[in-house]
Design a protein that fits this description.
The protein is mainly alpha-helical. It folds into two domains: 49 residues, no CATH class; 65 residues, no CATH class. Helix content is 56%, strand content 7%. It has six helices and two strands; from the N terminus they run H-E-H-H-E-H-H-H. It has a two-stranded parallel sheet with strand order 1-2. The longest helix is centred in the last third of the chain and has 17 residues. The radius of gyration is 15 Å and the shape is globular. The mean pLDDT is 87. This is Integrase catalytic domain-containing protein. InterPro entries: Integrase_cat-core, RNaseH-like_sf, RNaseH_sf, Transposase_IS3/IS150/IS904. One of its GO terms (molecular function) is nucleic acid binding.
C-alpha cells in the first residue's frame, strides 16, 4: 500500500486543484483500501469503480495496460524488481508526455489535456 500512497502524493503535488476530478479504476483491493479512499475524498476527488468482471467499464485503463505490456513488459527482460520499477516509471513518463496518439490529434495525453482543459 506504501507504493500506492506515494503515487497519490506525487499526483497531488503535480495537480493542485483536484476538486471535481473523477478517478476511475477497477475493483482492485488497493482502490477499496480505507486510506486510499480517504485520501481521494480529502482532495475532493470522486471515486468511480468498474462493475465486477466488466473490463469495458474501464476501457481506457485496459487499453493503456495492453499497450504497456506489448511495448515494455513483453519486450524487455528485468533482472530485479527495482529495474522493472525504474523502466515502468520511465515508460509512464514517455507514454504521458511523448508518445503521440492519433485519437488525440497527434498529441501526447499531457499535450492534449493541456490544450483542451488547461491543466
Amino acid at each position: 500500500m506504501q507504493m500506492i500512497s506515494e503515487m497519490l502524493d506525487k499526483a497531488f503535488e503535480k495537480v493542485k486543484d483536484t476538486k471535481g476530478i473523477i478517478f476511475h479504476s477497477d475493483q482492485g483491493w488497493q482502490y477499496q483500501h480505507y486510506g486510499y479512499r480517504k485520501s481521494l475524498e480529502e482532495h475532493g476527488i470522486l471515486q468511480s469503480m468498474s462493475r465486477k468482471g466488466n473490463c469495458l467499464d474501464n476501457a481506457m485503463a485496459e487499453n493503456f495496460f495492453e499497450i504497456m505490456k506489448s511495448e515494455l513488459l513483453y519486450a524487455e527482460k528485468f533482472e530485479t524488481a527495482e529495474e522493472f520499477i525504474k523502466a515502468l516509471e520511465e515508460y509512464i513518463d514517455y507514454y504521458n508526455n511523448k508518445r503521440i496518439k492519433n485519437k488525440l490529434n497527434g498529441k501526447s495525453p499531457v499535450q492534449y489535456r493541456t490544450l483542451t482543459h488547461g491543466i
